[in-house]
Amino acid sequence: MTASVIAGVFLSGVLAEKGAIFAGHDPTAAWPFPDLTGMVIFVLGALACPILAVCLVKLLSRALPESPYRVIFTTLVIPPLIAYPMGAAAYKWHVRNDAADSRKAVESSQIQRAKSDALQAELIADPEIALRERWFERKQGDELARYLFTESLKEPHVPYTLAQLARIYQEAPEARALVVAHPACDPAFLANHWSHALNEAKVGNDDILIAIASNPKTPKELLENLESSELLSHQKVSGSLKHTLDAHLHREELVMSRDQTIQATTEIGLIKLYASSDLHRSCEWKSATRSATLEARKESSPDGPTLYFYGFGENSGQANVTTLIEFHEGTKRFQTPDQAILWIHQQSERIPTVYRNDGLLVSSNMNAEKNQLTIEVWQILINTNEPTSLPGGNDAQITVTAPVSTN
Fold first, then answer.
1. What is the pTM of this model?
2. Same domain, yes or no, for 247 and 258?
3. Non-local CB neighbours of 125 within 8 Å, separated by 6+ positions
4. Chain segment 214-231, per-residue pLDDT in tens
5. Rounded to whole angstroms, how far apart are CA atoms 149 and 120?
6. Co-location of 342 and 229 in the same domain
7. Based on the domain organization, do 261 and 374 belong to the same domain?
8. Is the domain of 395 the same as that of 271?
9. Cα torsion for 127, 130, 136, 142, to the nearest 10°?
10. Averaged pLDDT, 1-10
């Protein structure tokens, strides 16, 4: 009797453990188990099954006469009847349910993607559907349509007409900044909404005005009037509007383009300049980086405005390399190469300068007394064109790189 109970406990424990392995326990994994569920299944299988087997063996030993058949029955039949189904049930619960959940997630994603593609196709074929069915409204269950509508205003693939954009501007106030930034807008449309954008900016909502100022079709005279107005000094207007105006109105004065890097070998060492946006510049020098956002600066010179920054920039790297940073960027226009060379000589006397044959020039200086780094980046133009050769130009001293296009 004792031998049969021990044999039954051993066999049921082995089978229960196999069930736990099927259900997720990895016997080669580090302690304790791959997850809490696997540990629970193992404990239930390896402990509960033998206990149940012992109880049943004792009960049957009282009901059945002592015989070899009873020993075989209680030892070989009862434990598998308990342990193996329990392991199989655990396997089904843990593994098959996970697989079913995974399949359901994939199926749900496929259904959502198909629905999105179908709605997008309808929108491209008939943009009026977004207005007719009011996709821009917040409705329970229509989150996908609202999302597609918002995205459609950011890209030109949906052929909205000016009349439709005007209706969206009136009926969907939350989308107004996207509407006036849309490529289908023409100068007249933008001018018609200029007054409303100004009024919104005065009460603290300058998103619409920034979007209009960013649109290349906005009439320049509107932006020039805004630049000279008192609105930019209004406390409720963000600095983003000023930066947007500078980038739009003075784009011709910008030497560096977005994501472009200029590396120059100068008298004070290697200088690396990076344009993270139209106006934001970072200067790396002696393992220190100083960053700042340029602003338009009117100068009493025939060259017109330049972009400029002077002050304490955003600092990273070595703290004591420099504190103040002064940055100039702009174009210098000359009628003849001789005029350009004369100006370069004057510039070099004032601040150490290196330049290339195509007219790209970098001047730099470190004032130890003020702990100030000065950087100037100029593009020389001869009769509105970049030169092909300038006496003294050294192309090896300045390199220009930009990210490889992914298109």
1. 0.58
2. no
3. none
4. 898 999 899 888 888 888
5. 9
6. no
7. yes
8. yes
9. -130
10. 56
